[in-house]
Design brief:
Chain lengths: ~160, ~375, ~375
């Protein structure tokens, strides 16, 4: 599957909310979509293109904005596809992918706590790697290494 | 006994690492579970932002401490794509050899831990004993037994020592005989079959929904192996079969891993033959100066040339012993990667715990989690 | 083997000691010290001390034996460094445990927490005191010594459960529950297997049972009972494949999770003491006890301690079998264990009782020969 095929298949449903499909060596392409089209994109990629397996969700802090990317795999074409959306830094939130891919659950929890991207309608948005009550987001560029940080760990509720 | 939550971990013999499996039990039955991770979080992704490309390799060994070389390979593939570097062919073969030996070592470690969870005491030592032979091989060309720091962007640090291939073949011969012994110890035991058959079922459908990969997925009858489906490195040239089983239970996972070790032996023999007949360089000669060869960056002149750095994105996916591992490297110019993101297969495998634990007994937790093959280092990163 | 028994030896020792001591002192003290009651009291003390020392030394050597055997099964050497071939390693370990701080979880129940291990240890010691090891080493000499030994043996689940419950730990509690369920389930087939032996030998006295086996060991004709007895013993001793109460993979250390230092050492020692007692019972009931087979030259038989040596060789061999089983089998699950216990072992043990009854009727078997004396 080539980036053009992906673009053709997605554009019918997404229209101008699909920002483009770039070539990415080793994958079927890198789909760039607008954050408000998240659920539609997920559904089309999952149902129509057959990418049934979500491998990873990650976030990148570009200082002026944030990027969230998804890596999905299809057993039919045996290729990866990368989905990516830009989010404004002051309101970084996007629809959760858990209704489409159940495996997004933990990946989104991790992305939320590390890169501070909120996933709307996530069933269980708790801390995963960091202690409960941790208020920092370590993978933001503003989180400097080598600097003492104030840890405020609240009591865990069990 | 009424229902209660039981914390299995973070210090518990079952966990094989630092994590906490909270299970809700009624007597001996598991009603619900909730894995808690993060006890081993070292912030490898954050530290990588501050490290030279070659320095991240050190972190990769710590990422998964039983499959360090496989993780090095994973990162190197992504980094090379992001930096537009191509390694010489011999280096590719050596890396594939590392991968397969690492798979054997990791599976032997898994075997030892898994049978120990079942209460089988002797095979635990057998697995560790045989893994040591593989570690000896690693030591002979990397100088280390667990934290290798062997691969480099653009190749590997050094060529194999003289006589290595013969020694490696001897180890493979020994191991091939041991696999038969292992099978006799486990599959030949009625108690083993009673314990493991129909245990920890996870169907192919659930596997895909929950992102489970690796031997767990193949034990459900799905023939997916990145080495075949998306051949990276030199796997296209190798002749091997993908190990699959149908039962989707603990025994099936055992069978898949055992067969994978045999297939690794088969691949290794081909790789060793190739290595015997194709001497050559193991490090690309046209590396950017600041990438340095063979070790850390020489001086810091890289800062002066910042404009000339190539930018790029790197993505790699490797069939690691535990499943499909992925790396996403963002190169924004400079000595350090802008962002490195890893996908750990065990991370996804554990996240599906509710699907394969609920409904079984407390006594089933160790064999089931053992069959998942948890390596907490790569889950928490 | 003369009239020298363990008690007569300690009696002689006591009287020699007190008479010797008394001869130093003038009359009133001399009379005091050579008072027969005092001599008897000291004799009892010496007797008990010998028993205690024998049980402790045997237990520790048994642990060494297990460690060495397990090591060999696992393709390694076992303890090597302290003493010859690691013989003193367990004494060193015991010393270490002895020096450790004894602690108790704050929320636990102090009485049960401390009384449990002590009672467990004491009952195990009592059984060892009752069991005869040779014709001289026969402190019990009770007509019902077998019943008494097994009765004390079955106290253990109570103490285990008490200490598990008072630990106030979920793992301990689960281990205690499992332990109680398991021991009760396996008590029945164990006793039924013993009944088969009793039917054939016609006595509850262990010494008599051994004498019956002078030329006719019971393991052959009562093989089924032996199998049931060994399996039941494995469960009672909580060894792999039946070590669920302390299955370290899921229950950390089972019912003794919260114990450390000397209290843990008590459990450990009592466990091995029970293993020793179990092996001794197998030898007594099925393997002819201290009776020598015919081919042993009489010079060796007349040696005073020959019976004990011969007995211990057999005991350690039986325990070696237990170790072998431990080295090569995985553990079963609770429900499987109980199913095996109630559904398989009890019918098997009943069958063995019937076989024993038939044997008493037939009296002679083609290969094994004839019973020496009329049974029940």
């Amino acid at each position: 599957m080539q980036p053009d095929d992906v673009a053709r298949a997605l554009s019918t449903r997404l229209g101008d909310r699909l920002l483009g499909v770039e070539t990415f060596v080793g994958t079927a392409g890198r789909v760039r979509f607008r954050a408000d089209a998240a659920l539609d994109t997920f559904h089309s990629v999952h149902d129509e293109l057959g990418f049934r397996h979500l491998s990873m969700v990650g976030g990148i802090d570009w200082v002026d904005h944030r990027e969230v990317f998804y890596v999905v795999w299809s057993d039919d074409v045996r290729q990866y596809l990368i989905l990516s959306a830009d989010l404004p830094a002051d309101a970084a939130h996007i629809e959760s992918a858990t209704p489409v891919w159940e495996s997004a659950n933990w990946h989104e929890r991790e992305t939320w706590e590390l890169v501070d991207i909120t996933f709307d309608h996530h069933p269980d948005l708790r801390h995963l790697l960091m202690p409960d009550g941790y208020v920092f987001h370590p993978l933001l560029r503003s989180f400097k290494l080598h600097e003492p940080e104030e840890l405020e760990v609240k009591q865990r509720s069990v | 006994m009424s229902e209660m939550w039981l914390n299995m971990g973070p210090q518990h013999p079952m966990t094989h690492g630092l994590w906490n499996l909270r299970v809700k039990i009624d007597g001996e039955m598991i009603l619900d579970c909730d894995p808690e991770m993060g006890y081993l979080h070292r912030g490898i992704e954050k530290i990588s932002e501050d490290r030279h490309y070659n320095e991240v390799i050190t972190l990769m060994d710590r990422c998964c401490y039983v499959a360090g070389l496989a993780w090095e390979h994973l990162y190197i593939l992504a980094a090379e794509q992001a930096l537009h570097v191509t390694p010489p062919e011999r280096a590719d073969y050596i890396r594939a050899m590392c991968d397969e030996f690492q798979r054997i070592a990791s599976h032997l470690m898994w075997y030892a831990a898994f049978v120990q969870d079942l209460g089988l005491m002797s095979p635990f030592l057998y697995g560790m004993r045989d893994r040591d032979l593989v570690l000896d091989l690693f030591q002979s060309f990397t100088g280390a037994r667990m934290t290798y720091e062997y691969q480099r962007v653009g190749g590997v640090r050094s060529d194999l020592p003289a006589g290595f291939t013969d020694r490696a073949r001897k180890v493979l011969d020994w191991l091939d005989e041991r696999y038969v012994e292992y099978d006799r110890l486990c599959l030949g035991s009625t108690i083993f079959r009673e314990r493991c058959d129909d245990l920890g079922k996870l169907t192919a459908r659930d596997c895909i929904a929950t992102g489970v990969t690796g031997p767990m997925l193949r034990s459900a009858g799905l023939k997916r192996d990145l080495r075949k489906d998306r051949p990276y490195s030199i796997y296209k040239q190798l002749d091997f079969d993908v190990a699959v089983a149908d039962a989707a239970d603990v025994t099936a996972r055992y069978l898949v891993r055992m067969e994978e070790m045999r297939q690794s032996s088969r691949m290794l023999r081909q790789i060793l033959d190739w290595l015997d007949h194709h001497p050559g360089p193991v490090l690309a000669d046209r590396l950017p100066r600041w990438l340095g060869a063979p070790y850390a960056p020489q001086g810091r002149e890289g800062y002066l040339l910042k404009r000339n750095y190539p930018k790029g994105l790197g993505f790699s996916s490797v069939e690691e012993p535990h499943g499909e591992a992925q790396a996403y490297v963002v190169n924004e110019g400079g000595e350090h990667p802008y962002r490195v993101k890893f996908r750990s297969p065990v991370f996804a495998n554990i996240s599906a715990a509710r699907h394969y634990l609920v409904g079984y007994h407390v006594a089933d937790i160790p064999p089931i989690m053992g069959s998942v093959d948890v390596c907490v280092g790569e889950v928490d990163r | 083997m003369g009239g020298a028994t363990l008690f007569s030896v300690s009696d002689t020792l006591a009287s020699v000691l007190l008479n010797g001591l008394g001869s130093i002192f003038p009359q009133p003290i001399h009379g005091w010290l050579t008072n027969p009651d005092l001599i008897l009291g000291l004799a009892v003390l010496i007797f008990g001390a010998i028993l205690l020392a024998a049980s402790m030394i045997n237990t520790i050597v048994l642990i060494w034996w297990e460690r060495k055997l397990l090591g060999r099964f696992m393709d390694r050497r076992g303890a090597m460094h302290v003493g010859y071939a690691g013989l003193l390693q367990n004494f060193a370990d015991g010393l270490k445990l002895f020096r450790k701080n004894t602690f108790r979880p704050r929320e636990s129940d102090s009485l049960g927490f401390y009384a449990g291990p002590v009672a467990y240890m004491v009952t195990s010691l009592i059984i060892f005191g009752i069991l005869p090891i040779s014709s001289g080493w026969n402190s019990g000499a009770l007509p019902l010594s077998l019943l008494l030994a097994l009765a004390i043996f079955s106290f253990a689940p109570l103490f285990i459960f008490v200490s598990a419950w008072s630990s106030n730990n979920k793992y301990s509690l689960m281990g205690g529950m499992r332990s109680a369920a398991q021991m009760i389930a396996y008590e029945v087939p164990l006793l039924l297997a013993v009944v088969a032996v009793v039917v054939v030998s016609g006595s509850f006295d262990l010494a008599t049972i051994v004498q019956e086996q002078q030329n006719y060991w019971f393991w052959g004709p009562l093989f089924l009972a032996l199998v049931v007895f060994v399996a039941g013993m494995l469960a009672e001793m909580e060894r792999i494949p039946f070590d669920l109460p302390e299955a370290e993979a899921e229950l950390v250390e089972g019912w003794n999770t919260e114990y450390g230092g000397m209290l843990f050492a008590f459990f450990m020692l009592a466990d091995y003491l029970r293993a020793l007692v179990g092996s001794i019972l197998v030898v007594l009931l099925f393997l002819g006890g201290w009776t020598m087979p015919g081919w042993v030259p009489s010079a060796a038989t007349s040696f005073p301690l020959a019976g004990i040596v011969w007995f211990m060789v057999k005991t350690y061999a039986v325990f070696g079998l237990f170790v072998w089983i431990r080295a090569s089998l995985p553990r079963v699950r609770t429900d499987q264990l109980l199913r095996i216990g109630w559904n398989r072992m009890i019918p098997l043990s009943l069958a063995s009782v019937f076989l024993a009854a038939a044997l008493v009727l037939v009296r002679c078997l083609p290969v094994f020969g004839c019973l020496p004396s009329p049974g029940v």
